[in-house]
Design brief:
alpha/beta, Rossmann fold, three-stranded parallel sheet, globular, transmembrane, membrane, lipopolysaccharide binding
């Protein structure tokens, strides 16, 4: 009976950006510049910058990317 929003959790990032390497320049030069460096300063989770060595890529996507972000942006 109606839609209930899930409880808000503390997240490190506002959005995890999932993209193919083909779009890396666009993400790094346009999205990151426009979102992180704007007045609102929207922190993005970008795998090439925010994932650390020693953990599987899939684990990083789930733990830092999806669970650590409020939203997911697919490019």
């Amino acid at each position: 009976k109606g839609y209930r929003t899930p409880p808000q959790q503390e997240c490190t990032y506002d959005a995890f950006v999932d993209f193919h390497t083909y779009n890396e320049d666009r993400v790094m030069n346009e999205m990151m510049e426009n979102l992180e460096n704007c007045v609102l300063s929207i922190p993005l989770c970008l795998h090439m910058r925010d994932f650390q060595a020693g953990k599987s890529f899939a684990s990083h996507i789930i733990d830092e990317g999806i669970m650590g972000s409020r939203k997911i942006i697919v490019v």
